[in-house]
Amino acid sequence: MITGATKLAAVIGSPVRHSRSPAIHNAAFAAAGLDWVYVALDVAPGAGYDAVRALPTLGIAGINVTMPHKADAARACDVLTPAAAGLASVNTVIVHPDGTRVGDSTDGEGFLRSLSDEGLDPCGHSVLVLGAGGAARAIAAALVGCGAHVAVAARRDRAAAELADAVAGVECALWPSSGSVGAEIVVNATPIGMGDDANLVVEPRADQWVVDLVYHPVETPLIARAQTVGARPIGGLGMLVHQAALSFEAWTGVAAPLDAMRTAAQ
To answer: Tens digits of per-residue pLDDT, 99-138?
Structure first.
């Protein structure tokens, strides 16, 4: 039962209707016996800064942040963790009782944990990250940190160059207009393939790991093609669950019930 004592958490983004985060977090709160509730808030592009600044006033205890608000959320926070400060990007905000807004980035660690679940250690492998947004930046930094050889490509060359300048050890690559690419691991960190978008971001090869951060639909065009050609596909639900678990623990101080969260995500 929701009462005046129920703590509120949310995800902000645009679009956000497709988000599975409410199902994942509400299942986690129930499994942990916590009096919390989680909702999705569609915040228009450009309004992310104001939304984060308003959190203490509204009594919201924590939020997740998705596109296109991650950079604005970083600017709006009072304190940034080292991970968030290094990326100038925030996907999790913790609101302390005194109103202090602490920004964190759980995308990179959540991504690595999702690869580990599938038996993939990226250390020493060549990785092409497609996209240059907040998630791409966090993933690129995490991959470099664990010893992978990382290149990034974006539809806007300048965006890729800015990411490479911001994350030491990342190289720029040309956007693959068609065909396959040579990396051992390919990561789609763009929205291509989301919803009814049937486009392929790249043509996978049988000797590659293919990771698609898009999780709606679960079987994206890229994942479907990877399965067809015999590549090893990894969908976006694993990263979604693990970054959510890290957020959950930061807000509540309680160990995340991963099994309940995975079941809700699926």
So the answer is: 999 999 999 999 999 999 999 999 999 999 999 988 899 9
Q: Do 151 and 179 share a domain, yes or no?
A: yes
- Residue 134 within any structural domain of the chain: yes
Residue 60 is part of which domain span?
7-105+239-265
**Residues 127, 151 contacting (CB under 8 angstroms):** yes
Residue 48 identity (one-letter amino acid)? G
In a shared domain, residues 93 and 212: no
Q: How many residues does the structure list for the chain?
A: 266
pLDDT tens profile 177-211: 767 889 999 999 999 998 888 888 899 999 999 99
Q: Could you tell me if residue 2 is inside a domain?
A: no
Q: Which residues are catalytic?
A: 70
